[in-house]
Design brief:
This protein has about 210 residues and is α/β, with parallel strands linked by helices. It is about 15% helix and about 30% strand.
Length: about 210
């Protein structure tokens, strides 16, 4: 069937898993900022496990050939884990980056940044280019990446919390890092200069 139609309507038995829960044995500071996921790099919030296929039938003739992105949100099949750029995080730059994403044959072939902090644009576009959909997905749709700094300050950077919504919008929240203060070395005046400035230098002895 798939050799000729390339698609089929499948009914199956299985299990659907929601977002994972951090291991309670982890330190509380890590559990607050860590959200485990499924799949490659833990990038997915849900997982479907198929145990048995009940039936396979031809797709109805009136079923759309391609996914219409103006009417529905496509199902993301693969993605790298989004990150908070280190420079932006250190400078505590936050905001929303809105991008028009163009997909052709299931792959991202174009990105157009509509708005957002310039320092956060690069990492957003880089991550979007790793997105993969089914081969029949074509079209253009908007995606919003929201970057936020929240929580108590930490001495060292920690993993940000990443959340992908059903709309494919992405929320990235990082904890602030305590600023590092560096003190430069101070020069010490010469001994004769100190004596002269203090007014305690002995007058020269007569010959």
């Amino acid at each position: 069937m798939l050799d000729t139609a390339v698609k089929a309507e499948v009914v199956f038995d299985g299990e659907f898993y929601g977002p994972g829960v951090p291991d309670p044995k982890l330190p509380e500071a890590i559990r607050k900022s860590y959200q485990p996921g499924w799949g490659h790099l833990g990038a997915f919030k849900t997982k479907l496990v198929v145990h048995a296929i009940q039936s396979v039938e031809s797709v109805p003739a009136d079923h759309p050939t391609n996914a219409d992105l103006s009417q529905q949100v496509p199902i993301l099949q693969e993605s790298a884990l989004p990150v908070y750029p280190p420079i932006g995080r250190a400078a505590r730059i936050t905001g929303k980056v809105v991008v028009a994403v163009t997909v052709s044959g299931g792959k991202v072939t174009g990105t157009e940044v509509k708005s957002g902090p310039r320092l956060l644009e690069g990492c957003t576009v880089t991550n979007l280019k790793t997105w993969r959909f089914a081969d029949n997905v074509n079209g253009t749709f908007p995606v919003t990446y929201s970057y936020a700094i929240s929580g108590d300050e930490t001495d060292n950077p920690t993993n940000p919390r990443v959340e992908m919504l059903p709309s494919l919008d992405v929320n990235i929240t990082a904890r602030p890092v305590k600023p590092t203060v560096q003190y430069g070395a101070q020069s010490v005046p010469a001994t004769d200069t100190l004596a002269h400035e203090s007014g305690h230098a002995d007058p020269p002895k007569p010959q």
